[in-house]
Amino acid sequence: MMGSMSPDELKETVSRGLLAFPLTDFNASNEFDPRAHAARIEWLSGQGAAAFFSAGGAGEFFSLSKAEYLEVIHTAVTASASALPIIASAGYGTRLAIEYVQEAERLGVDGILLLPPYLTEATQEGLRDHITAVCRSTRLGVIVYNRANCQPNAETLDRIAETCPNFVGFKDGVGNMETLLSVRSRLNGRLAMINGMPTAEVYARSYRTIGIPAYSSAVFNFAPRSATAFYGAVLGDDLETYDAFVTNFLLPYLKIRGRQPGYAVSIVKAGAEIVGRSAGKVRPPLSDLTPQEYEELSSLIARLGPQE
Questions:
Q1: What domain count does the chain have?
Q2: What CATH number is given to the structural domain containing 87?
Q3: What is the 3-state secondary structure (H, E, C) of the chain?
Q4: Which domain, by its residues, includes 69?
Q5: Is 302 a member of any domain?
Q6: Mind listing the pLDDT tens digit for each residue in 248-274?
Q7: Model confidence over 187-201: pLDDT tens digits?
């Protein structure tokens, strides 16, 4: 199997439209459930997203064995049936990241989201070597996730882009406006730039004002209709719809999410269960919401109305 998108086509796709990263489905024994995951991909594929990041942060990449990862990617590619692009996450050290990338390419994905390396900090030269090696290992378009211990500066990104035509995207999870403006100025449209902040809706208007309208939505996993309407409000400067969503849902949602480390994933899994689309529990070291928090979230989601 081979993905149908060229790197340039991937760049164009992720530069516009709402992006999503589906949850990974676990059964009652906390094992990957391919049938449930296929149903999730099929459901979300018809809800208006431009592309999916498969086995990403919300998909608990960090908790998957390599065999499980491959099964998740295969399931997503098969279930999407080319309805929209599947971008596979890859990470860890350089050699292992390359293995993941090449296996995902073999399974037919349309692009790669390169997550930060495991554990250790790195120099700018080390990050350049790491990203360059991954890009050269595949014909697929590669998007770098700027977060944690992988924060290449504008000069480093420019050097990578000079030698790697398939390096096409920069997904930002840090929120440093100086860095974002430097990257945009230096690379002058060479990269697709994506708001990849946790609960990206919080930052959507700020990023749009500097020319970055695209973002990946966690809320889309359990409230795709509301997430899509909010994205439209951001693009259309519909302040009434924007303010209503922020006041009635987003701010109280953030209060729950901020109570414990890792709740950025846990709250999304709880939301999916509340709307009848359970993906199971999170795996350790993450923890699920408490029963009280679950009820709080349930009340918030009820305010959004039907999502089907």
A1: 1
A2: 3.20.20.70
A3: CCCCCCHHHHHHHHCCCEEECCCCCECCCCCECHHHHHHHHHHHHCCCCCEEEECCCCCCHHHCCHHHHHHHHHHHHHHHCCCCCEEEEECCCHHHHHHHHHHHHHHCCCEEEECCCCCCCCCHHHHHHHHHHHHHCCCCEEEEEEECCECCCHHHHHHHHHHCCCEEEEEECCCCHHHHHHHHHHHCCCCEEEECCCCHHHHHHHHHHCCCCCEEECHHHCCHHHHHHHHHHHHHCCHHHHHHHHHHHHHHHHHHHCCCCCHHHHHHHHHHHHCCCCCCCCCCCCCCCCHHHHHHHHHHHHHHCCCC
A4: 7-237
A5: no
A6: 999 999 999 999 999 999 999 999 999
A7: 999 999 999 999 999
